[in-house]
Write a structure and sequence with these properties.
about 280 residues, alpha/beta, Aspartate Aminotransferase, domain 2, Aspartate Aminotransferase, domain 1, 2 domains, six-stranded mixed beta sheet, three-stranded antiparallel beta sheet, 9 strands, binds pyridoxal-5'-phosphate
Length: about 280
């Protein structure tokens, strides 16, 4: 969150705009508003994707100073094609920011936006240790970009903003990266299992490259949320009509969710939804 804010402080601000593609990470528009940067929402394709054509057309229409892309996207899990990022870069003279908070959950052979950095000095890629490293409490995130972009960010960030203790914790976590990331493959398996079993129950699911699954067809998301909570399961109701989002956990936790969801489906059967 902090590096995203710093990027907006450096390159956004009053009189400037940032283009985004909702539904996406809610802090993107909140940070825009906090830095006085105009948030311009653009439409996604069906199934929440963003094609190279869609991103190019939105940039041509809105002429933003900054483009925010989120891949994989929160809250939908949607993959962000590398071609879409390259097309966005070619379509603008501004900064293209790719939020890769969930990159570690992508398929192993999927290229990261990091591979596009050489030769693209206006491209910025952010990552966090909050998700795959399960280290949100440490508050460590980072971005990768051309040295000129990093210099610009140095102008706005507070001196010594990352404490010595935080840095020591991050370095220790990185040294133990294989152990810290050991759960990622298990979580991906449980995510795919949730997709299969939710579909079998009659819900509509979406391709997810993240550690959560958005599913549609929930007749009353609020009532379903409450019914799940009574069974000690917490999901996210993001205000997308007829949809809920659930995070993958251990095999046991995932089983608990799926069992609870079957009981919810018995009371409020899945309904048809359009994406
Ligand atoms: C897409 C996305 N980007 C960034 C963040 C923020 O992560 P951090 O804990 O590093 O501020 C989140 C957290 O939910 C997220 O979903």
């Amino acid at each position: 969150n902090e590096v995203l804010q710093q990027l907006l402080q450096a390159f956004g601000g009053p009189g400037r705009s940032v283009l985004g593609f909702p539904p996406t990470y809610s802090m993107h528009s909140i940070l825009a508003s906090g830095t006085g940067t105009r948030w311009v929402p653009a439409e996604r394709d069906a199934e929440f994707g963003i094609s190279p054509e869609t991103v190019t057309a939105a940039i041509a229409e809105h002429q933003p100073d900054i483009v925010f892309l989120c891949g994989p996207n929160n809250p939908t899990g949607t993959p962000l094609p590398i071609e879409t990022i390259a097309a966005a870069y070619d379509a603008t003279d501004g900064v293209v920011m790719v939020d890769e908070a969930y990159a570690e959950f992508m398929p192993d052979d999927a290229p990261s936006a990091l591979t596009l950095l050489p030769g693209r000095e206006r491209l910025v890629v952010s990552r966090t240790m909050s998700k795959a490293f399960a280290f949100a409490g440490a508050r460590v995130g980072y971005l990768a970009a051309h040295p000129a972009v990093i210099d610009a960010i140095r102008l706005v960030r507070l001196p010594y903003h990352l404490s010595a203790l935080t840095q020591a914790a991050a370095v220790a976590a990185l040294r133990h990266a294989p152990a810290m990331l050991a759960m990622v493959d298990d979580i991906k398996q449980q995510r795919d299992r949730m997709v299969t079993e939710l579909q079998a129950m009659g819900y509509r699911t979406y391709e997810s490259w993240s550690n959560f699954v958005l599913f549609g067809g929930v007749a009353d998301p609020h009532a379903a949320f409450e019914a799940l909570l009574e069974q000690d399961v917490i999901v996210r109701d993001l205000g997308i009509p007829n949809h809920l989002r659930v995070s993958a956990g251990t095999a046991e936790e995932t089983t608990a969710f799926l069992d609870a969801m079957r009981r919810v489906a018995a009371v409020q059967p899945p309904v048809r939804v359009e994406a």
